[in-house]
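Give me structure tokens for this 380-residue protein.
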Amino acid sequence: MEMVDKYILYFEDDPDIAQMTTTALEAQGFVVRHFLSFPHEGVSALRDSLPVSPCLVILDVQLPGVNGFSICEILRREFLQDDVPVLFTSGLMQEEDILHAYAVGADDYLIKPVRLKELTLKVEQLLRQWEIRQQATEQFDSAMKMAFDAMKTSAELGDILRFMESTHKVSTTPELAALIFSALAGFGVKGTVYFEMDEKSYFRDDGRQVSLELQSIHEARSKGRIYSWKQFSFFNYQYFTVLIRDMPIDDEERYGVLKDQFCLLLNGVDARIEAILLERNNEQKQRVASDVAKSIAGLVLEMEQSKSAMSERFEQTILNLETNLSTELIHFNLLEEEEQTLVTHVNAAIQEASSIFEESLRKENEYKAVMQQLLNKLAG
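Here you go.
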């Protein structure tokens, strides 16, 4: 069935809400096909009544007969093309309801009463994301196939060892996410990675951005190291979470083996992240130490220049005083004894001033020596 970008399939059992929503979407240029409930004839009735495949589905949860969760599963399995977004609307807002919606294939979830402006913005956002995914699908599938073909010829434990070696060559979260996705492809599973380091970042192996999935990851991070719900397994670490979206829950033995191997693989990621953070911290300390060293070096140089200038000024002042005193005493007609007494007092004052000045220089040299020691430690 051909798909038209503007065609929306809509399930809502309240006629008034359906009319308002349809009117708002049609005003945005969409073609809306509304159903009050899931047809008794099933998917065949949808195919007969829709001239084209929809680009988006809006689903109320509490519908008469078949509920929205079941409808979503049927549509995903039997009717919709790959990655066509599904938006749930419901008055149910418990964590279990949101996780259920995500598990059956929903892309987003709006709590009723839904504001029409918010609804139209969500619809436009989901369609933009779908268009971007469609454009990137061919390139991404090719890259993932190459990664899978390269890894499937080796034993899984060997893949883990090579993965750990590869982590030492990367230092950014996008590079780590790409390595994780390549490793998961070797195990035949699909994954999502969420990092909570200096900045929060979210990566999915198919390039999608699913807000409901991100919300589920935030909920799961408080539920222990490994949290499993149906085919979803969340592996939680201090700085990141990896979600495996398609664990083989029907094969108990394989399921247990994969959980153990993923723990081993992700322990390597955890160790690498700790090393990256330590490297960043050391780099920051080195930058701070370098800045402090430059400041201290400048201060030491300034003190040295200031001391030299002050010594010269002091010596010149003493010389000027002695010269002026000798010259001026002649004009005072002092007795020799009086003149000698005055000169003695002036010399004593000069000596005391010199002593104070020398003490000041000594203290300054001590400060300079302390700063030089600190500078040497920072430089070392």
